[in-house]
């Protein structure tokens, strides 16, 4: 295991930190297709903390299988400092993954996570890094999260492990976040734990974060904001639709649960989203199907069933109408792209 001197860059802004204590260490394990935004959003708050305090509060390094450079989802390659190997127990190991969750399940990656956690180290998953933690068996009975786009596929692989919708989770010796800007939120929470909320707020200001960490815990905007609607009935119906994509509910059942008549719900949908409730509901189910085809190895029949369709032929017809291609071609294209990215 190589050691790296902490980087303390010069800067104009300054915030004194008293009783800084020992330098905390992070190791970022990059897997093919990792998201550059999520990775840099985790590293930069550490750099800013050192810069603001002019003290070596944090040290970080980059790991990869074989110590090789790793291509991100944007095609930009990042060099690794070293290959996978035993880490000091005080080092927090963060698995950075992306659009190819299976990359985080590589045997060497999973073994590294298992070993570090078994010997008392903290392990984390950034974006879809939770796949590595799940395969390593460290998420049982713990709160965790991953990017919302990949949660349906994750649940198909690990039906007993249910992620939260929060931007990040800290549960003992496991840390997880949805990636993107949520990486910054998670790191700000750790900086606040180490050096206080006031210092973390200054780091947040340097990141130009206009929302305080923890003020907006969920990954996605509320349904009200998404649909630009303040109708409680409409929001309640759409929430129920999302909760019943496989075991679909009739429009009568949805309306009754929302405390409205069927005709009132139909008028709300036409006025607000420009389509019928059934058409909107079908779109949600097809979007889930597209997600499952992209992120899992489920058969077409399994995907159709998971989206509430009684037959593959009906699912395929509706899928083509929405996405302009049949699901068999879409599935083949997505998996081919995944194999190319892993190569």
From TrEMBL:
Concerning Pfam families, the annotation shows: DJ-1_PfpI (PF01965), HTH_18 (PF12833)
Coiled coil location: none
CDD domains xref list: GATase1_AraC_ArgR_like
Top-level taxon of origin: Bacteria
Domain HTH araC/xylS-type, first and last residues per copy: 235-333
Provide this UniProt record's keywords sorted from A to Z: DNA-binding, Transcription, Transcription regulation
Q: Which PROSITE patterns match?
A: HTH_ARAC_FAMILY_2 (PS01124)
Full protein name: AraC family transcriptional regulator with amidase-like domain
Organism (species): Cereibacter johrii
């Amino acid at each position: 295991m190589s050691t790296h001197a902490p980087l303390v860059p010069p800067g104009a802004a300054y915030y004194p930190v008293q009783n800084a204590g020992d330098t905390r260490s992070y190791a970022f394990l990059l897997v093919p297709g990792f998201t550059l935004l999520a990775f840099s959003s985790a590293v930069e708050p550490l750099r800013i903390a050192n810069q603001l305090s002019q003290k070596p509060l944090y040290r970080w390094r980059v790991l990869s299988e074989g110590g090789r450079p790793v291509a991100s989802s944007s095609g930009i390659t990042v060099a690794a400092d070293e290959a996978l190997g035993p880490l000091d127990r005080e080092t927090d190991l963060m698995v950075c993954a992306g659009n190819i969750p299976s990359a985080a399940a590589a045997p060497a990656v999973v073994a590294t996570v298992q070993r570090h956690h078994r010997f008392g180290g903290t392990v984390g998953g950034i974006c879809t890094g939770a796949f590595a933690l799940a395969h390593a068996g460290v998420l049982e009975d713990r709160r965790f999260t991953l990017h919302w786009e990949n949660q349906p596929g994750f649940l198909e692989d690990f039906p007993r492990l249910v992620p939260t919708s929060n931007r990040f989770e800290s549960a003992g010796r496991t840390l997880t976040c949805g990636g993107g800007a949520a990486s910054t939120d998670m790191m700000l929470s750790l900086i606040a734990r180490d050096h206080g909320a006031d210092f973390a707020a200054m780091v947040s200001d340097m990141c130009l974060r206009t929302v305080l960490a923890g003020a907006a815990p969920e990954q996605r905007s509320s349904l009200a904001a998404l649909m630009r609607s303040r109708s409680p009935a409409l929001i309640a119906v759409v929430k129920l639709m999302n909760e019943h994509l496989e075991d679909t509910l009739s429009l009568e059942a949805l309306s009754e649960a929302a405390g409205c008549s069927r005709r009132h719900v139909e008028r709300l949908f036409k006025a607000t989203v420009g389509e019928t409730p059934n058409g909107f509901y079908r779109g949600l189910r097809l979007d889930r199907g597209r997600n499952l085809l992209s992120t899992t190895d489920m058969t077409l029949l399994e995907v159709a069933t998971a989206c509430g369709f009684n037959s593959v032929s009906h699912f395929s017809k509706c899928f083509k109408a929405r996405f302009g291609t049949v699901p068999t071609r879409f599935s083949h294209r997505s998996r081919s792209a995944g194999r190319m990215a892993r190569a």
